[in-house]
Amino acid sequence: MASGNPFYDDLRNKPEVIDPPESEDLVEIVSESSVNDPAQIALKPNLTVSSSVRELLECPVCLNAMYPPIHQCSNGHTLCSGCKPRVHNRCPTCRHELGNIRCLALEKVAASLELPCKYQSYGCMGIYPYYSKLKHESQCIFRPYNCPYAGSECTVMGDIPYLVAHLKDDHKVDMHNGSTFNHRYVKQNPHEVENATWMLTVFSCFGQYFCLHFEAFQLGMAPVYIAFLRFMGDDNESKNYSYSLEVGGNGRKMSWQGVPRSIRDSHKKVRD
Hints:
Layout lengths: L5 H8 L37 H6 L13 E3 L5 E3 L23 H8 L2 E3 L10 E3 H10 L5 E2 L10 E2 L1 H10 L4 E4 L21 E7 L2 E12 L2 E10 L3 H4 L4 E7 L2 E7 L2 E2 L4 H5 L1
Parallel strand pairs: 7-8, 10-13
Antiparallel strand pairs: 1-2, 3-4, 5-6, 8-9, 9-10, 11-12
């Protein structure tokens, strides 16, 4: 039966307009190869999205942007699909029982939006369709880095110049200019590592910054000494460099050659 309202008839007759994504990758509208290519992005500096529309697309439970399927209760309150099981099928706003009602109108509104990258303040000037914005932000070359200092649970984030200053001023790490480094670590009994300290040295060379990590710890009954290099930049840039480490003592010597890992990878991930 037709309602006489073309908008609601359209929603009833074409519910397949927006299909729920199979994963958090969502609907990829911008191809992966051009995700960070400014030449491929149509900039729309005059585009504005009112705060009220953004609030409509904010899940009341997790406060994140909602993506299909967007659920609603019989009173019209909306909820993201990820939070629906968390509230035990009860609307968090009015406590009415949630069924399987899709809010197709709000999904259509979201599909029509184009929003700036959340890393705009870091330099990204791209405008992206709502459903591909999340994918872009997970790979945006302007997204900030986590502090690479692993001696504490540091939560500072920022671009490379900011983190270099942070490491120098707040963590008091050793700063070194040049591509070679010689450090003498003396341990009378190398099997006793309980008093060995974790150290970080930041190198400035080739117009880039690198972090040299050295640490010693007990793994079960065995003492472990680890040293590795990380590149302060993205992984695709880190592959342009290589490094070698040489350890010697008591007439013996061992060398290691490798490619530095990006600080996008956590200290624990690289160490493990």
